[in-house]
Amino acid sequence: MTTDHWVEAAALADVRRRRRLAVTVAGRHIALFLVGETVYALDDLCVHKQRRLTKGTLLYGRVICPGHQWKIDPETGRVEDREECQPTYAVRVDGGTVYVDPRPRVPTKES
Ligand code: FES
């Protein structure tokens, strides 16, 4: 992966404080979630009915959408028991800053 596309998205301290953070990167609404010590980035607008994932919860490492409680793997974007997948983004943490590559990764159930 090239590093040409990294965009500064947030301070790591802000993500740590709330464990989730809504940011706008290159015009995209992106949700940052802290699971353990890892920061993940997904489209903030749910692939189902566009509710904001940052208004949802984290449970057992899954993002729970506030709309209809779909359970989303923040690493892959896969939705439990569904065909739909939530776009995700590559994340890099460097020197207390979270960088996001704003090119969405859209997985499939098979990938
Ligand atoms: S809007 Fe996210 S599950 Fe329906």
From TrEMBL:
InterPro entries in UniProt: Rieske_2Fe-2S, Rieske_2Fe-2S_sf
One family name in Pfam for this protein: Rieske
Keywords on record: 2Fe-2S, Iron, Iron-sulfur, Metal-binding
SUPFAM superfamilies: ISP domain
Domain of life of the native organism: Bacteria
All copies of domain Rieske, residue ranges: 7-100
PANTHER family: 3-PHENYLPROPIONATE_CINNAMIC ACID DIOXYGENASE FERREDOXIN SUBUNIT, FERREDOXIN-RELATED
Full protein name: Rieske (2Fe-2S) protein
